[in-house]
Structure prediction request, 157 residues.
Amino acid sequence: MNIEKIQNRVNEINEILNGSWEGIDSGALISERAEKDLILNKQGVNIRLTGNNKYYWGYQFSKFRKNIDLYGSNYGYKDIDGSKISFHKYSINQEYSQYSNDLWRFNSPEEMKGFVKGYNSLCEILEKQKETKNLRSANDLKGSKKLFKRLIWKLKS
Prediction:
């Protein structure tokens, strides 16, 4: 199934669930939406996701891509496209192939998942910091990004 069809079906299900639930099998629709979301979120993820946590990790990988687009990485790469990042058993790569430029290397898939979750948590902290401090100037944001990059470096060390 192609991605556009899957996304259209997810949108249809969301519209149905936003309306009246009378006369529909909401459990089946919610399950179908979860499976379709997993397919969308798992693009470029080349590790096995199983069990009940597969939906959670699919979401975390998708969120990681979006955060890379917003905040970048601790490397000097300015043109990293989050949508092209791929996740392999022992690495996160810049392109779809596991032989492309490694952004990070890991000893196990669990270590990589921990890094992804930690990176996403740091991004949430930065977002909350921006909201609470009402960062108005570019210098305030620049300082936050420097702090963010130092925290990422410490997370990986």
